[in-house]
Each structure stands twice: as structure tokens, then as C-alpha cells.
Amino acid sequence: MSGLATVGVVVLTAVLTWIGHAVLTSQQRRLNVAIALEQRKRDLYKQFLTFFFNVLKQQKGGKVLNNDELASSLMDMTKDMAIYASDEVLRLFLQLRTMALEEEQDPAQIIELFGKIIRQIRKDLGHSMTRIEPKDILTLFITDIDKLYPRQKEI
Length: 155
Description:
Helix content is 77%, strand content 0%. By secondary structure, it is an all-alpha fold. The termini are far apart.
């Protein structure tokens, strides 16, 4: 019986080792996917912010924006947003895209929506308890924000 018990212990140890290895490998794979997804999100969100800041710079410089170029850039970002953005960021981005492609655009509404998107991006990237409001964010780069965003309202 002693020999059988020894074999049982060895087999049990081998099985538990194999199961532990399989679990750890699976967890490591999920972690690697999550890290890669997080990096893609960061890159995408940075691309979006760079695009929007470039549009603001062009408008500030008095340059007339070409709607075809804007539409093309937004379409390029849309495919990546559909894959990588959080649900809330994607929903707000689609609203922005729809607004930006309209014939009659309200710059104040677009800027307000942009502030909401930045806030959601911050939440998606880990600032889940943020108390920063869109107007606070927009104040960082728009000096006359009170003209465009006169009301303080809850999002």
C-alpha cells in the first residue's frame, strides 16, 4: 500500500502542477491582451486629441478647414474607435462625427461634446472617480471658454 500511496502522491502532484501551469498561462495571456488593448486605446485617444487640437489651431490661425479632409480623418479614426474605444467614448465620438459632418455646425456644441469625450477618455484610462468637468478640461486650452460654454451643467 505504501508504494501505491507514493505513486498516487506523485500523480496528484503532477496533475496539480499541470493545472497550475495551465491556469497561470491563461491568466498571463489575458493580462498580455489587456495590456496590448490598453496601449492601443492610449495611442488611439492620443491620435484623436492630436487631431482635434490641430483643428483648433487651424481655426485659431484663420485657416478655412476642408470638410473633405475632416471627414477623411474622422472616418480613419472611426474604425479604430469602433474596435478599441469604450462604449461611452464611442457613443460620444459618433455624436461628434455626426455633428462635424453636418452642413450647419455649432462650434459651441462641438467643443462642449469634445470636453465630454475627454472626460470619458480619462475615465476609460483609469480616472474613474474624476470630478473634473468638461468645462474644466476645456479651460486648459480655450482661453475664452466662457463665451462658448457659458453654463455650468452636470454631464
